[in-house]
What does this fold into?
Amino acid sequence: MDTKKALNIVAGQCSKKECCSTDVEAKLRRWELSDEDVAEIMAFLVKHHFLDDARFAEAYARDKFRFNRWGKLKIAQMLRRKQMPDSIIKQALAVLPEEDTDATCLALLRQKNKSIKDEDPYKRKAKLIRFALSRGFDYETVSRCMEKERF
It folds into this structure.
């Protein structure tokens, strides 16, 4: 594939949705473009604001928190997988509303509690804690929500 065609395709994709630079770079390398062409395309995309890792990280964090109901720990882990710097991750997590974290965790725990068949209160509580931790909520938030609801 030639450089101009690759640039047009990637710019079109970046204009439709937020993309991170590592994903775009990996896509360009899969198309077997030379390193110089990849660098040139990446520089163009950044210069013309098609790519912005900070903007991507904020949108990613907001969407995963709101729609997938993930906690901050899981969002940070997934952003690290996308090779985002810690400064950008911290900035993206700061965008999330702190007061909604407890409400989201509590709603997830209530929903999960309905589906647990175990009658033993200790096993039930352990399952709920494991579930909330796997969703990326920190232990302090989980324990605070568990105390509020008295599962």
Observations:
- The chain has nine helices and no strands.
- The two ends are 58 Å apart (CA to CA).
